[in-house]
């Protein structure tokens, strides 16, 4: 019998797509989420996609008793740890909340895993740990220098995981540094459903496309990039999901892996807007505005480690990311509250 994998934050954007990828690979999954940034309706969508039975537990990663009860009930083959808060601006306004949720929560989870003798974890880190990179593409060996409280919570968790592996080499740990996950499940049943005004580019574009917002404000057109707008490494969330499967497989033996997950290709805001409009036949009105404080000019991944150590490469191109994001948004104008 295949032992289940625990996915914390599994009703969220990346976690739900990863649950599907694991189910497709015949891997049983238990999701733990406190639903602070996701909808329980995600579970109905997962069931529709055949990712069932997915067992769901509503709990907080900071709740030791709940974690101990869960680890007593199941023997997990490992944990994929997505649960966390992720809004940079909010982290500036509420640093203690971010430290408590992301750092204390992760330490609490690691302690519960240790007590239960489950020592295999895949951790969601972020390219934000590189701060303002000196060189692009960014290798995993680049200097780490998070410039906001959210990014620092990721660095603190990474540090804790590295220290843990040094202290106890029985741990298998994959620190995955995601670049910019976008897109949605091709069925239109799963996607990104941000609360309020989206911070990120793709959900903002899809809301403009829908007419829910009048125009996109492009944050800065005077960067030292080919067209002056910011450059990022967008990758399809379905590809990101399979990266987690590859990481779990690579942790068959205890080791510490630190790996970028991106496409290695830099895409400007203007290229993204043009591609979205062309692929979907929907105009995206935009205005050029000032830079957003804290933004970097260009950030994209060096991808060799992912190829070598995980045998993983993304499959989906930018056009596909735009098509899937638009299918999701146009089919779900009220997000997960849209009736099926
Ligand atoms: P998300 O908000 O959609 O998913 C996170 C999930 O964690 C949510 O369902 C939320 O309810 C849950 N959660 C938060 N705190 C919790 C707690 N204390 N206990 C239990 N559940 C809790 O975010 P996402 O985009 O799917 O991101 C998943 C992870 O990947 C996060 O750790 C995030 O920091 C990281 N990440 C995301 C991006 C991105 O652009 N989306 C980029 C890099 C890294
Ligand atoms: N961006 C923009 N308008 C928006 C949101 C984002 O021009 O409404 C730009 C932003 O300045 C950056 C890129 O789009 O150059 C990606 O931003 P996002 O917040 O999605 O990712 P991050 O900056 O965190 O990598």
- Annotated CATH homologous superfamily of the domain at 5-183 and 234-263: NAD(P)-binding Rossmann-like Domain
Query: Count the strands?
Result: 14
Give the SSE string: EHEHEHEHHEHEEHEEEHEEHEEHH
Poorly predicted spans: none
Task: Explain this structure.
By secondary structure, the chain is of the alpha/beta class. The protein has a domain at 5-183 and 234-263: NAD(P)-binding Rossmann-like Domain (Rossmann fold). Helix content is 39%, strand content 17%. The protein is built from eleven helices and 14 strands. The strands form four sheets. It has a seven-stranded parallel sheet with strand order 3-2-1-4-5-6-11, sandwiched between helices. A three-stranded mixed sheet has the order 12-9-14. Strands 7-10 form a two-stranded parallel sheet. It binds nicotinamide-adenine-dinucleotide and uridine-5'-diphosphate. The site of uridine-5'-diphosphate has 14 residues, from helix 7 and strand 8.
């Amino acid at each position: 019998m295949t032992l289940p994998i625990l996915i914390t934050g599994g009703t969220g954007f990346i976690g739900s797509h990863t649950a599907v990828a694991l189910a497709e690979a015949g891997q049983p999954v238990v999701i733990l989420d406190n639903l602070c940034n996701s909808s329980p309706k995600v579970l109905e969508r997962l069931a529709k996609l055949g990712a069932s039975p997915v067992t769901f537990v509503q709990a907080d990663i900071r709740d030791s008793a709940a974690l101990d009860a869960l680890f007593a009930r199941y023997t997990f083959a490992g944990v994929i740890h997505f649960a966390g808060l992720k809004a940079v601006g909010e982290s500036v306004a509420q640093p203690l909340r971010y430290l408590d949720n992301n750092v204390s929560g992760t330490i609490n989870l690691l302690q519960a895993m240790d007590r239960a003798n489950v020592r295999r974890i895949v951790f969601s880190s972020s390219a934000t740990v590189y701060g303002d990179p000196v060189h692009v593409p960014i290798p995993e060996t680049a200097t780490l220098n998070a410039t906001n409280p959210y990014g620092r919570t990721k660095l603190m968790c990474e540090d804790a995981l590295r220290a843990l592996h040094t202290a106890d080499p029985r741990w298998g740990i994959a620190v995955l540094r995601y670049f910019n996950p976008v897109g949605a499940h091709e069925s239109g049943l799963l996607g990104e459903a941000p609360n309020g005004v989206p911070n990120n580019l793709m959900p903002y574009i899809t809301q403009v496309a829908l007419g829910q917002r009048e125009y996109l404000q492009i944050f800065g057109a005077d960067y030292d990039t080919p067209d002056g707008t910011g450059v990022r490494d967008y990758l399809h969330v379905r590809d990101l999901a399979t990266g987690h499967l590859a990481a779990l497989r690579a942790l068959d033996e205890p080791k510490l892996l630190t790996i970028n997950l991106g496409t290695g290709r830099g895409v400007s805001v203007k290229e993204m807007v043009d591609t979205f409009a062309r692929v979907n036949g929907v105009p995206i009105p935009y205005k050029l505005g000032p830079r957003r404080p804290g933004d970097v000019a260009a950030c994209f991944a060096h991808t060799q480690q992912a190829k070598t150590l995980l045998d993983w490469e993304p499959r989906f191109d930018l056009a596909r990311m735009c098509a899937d994001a638009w299918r999701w948004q146009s089919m779900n104008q009220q997000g997960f509250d849209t009736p099926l």
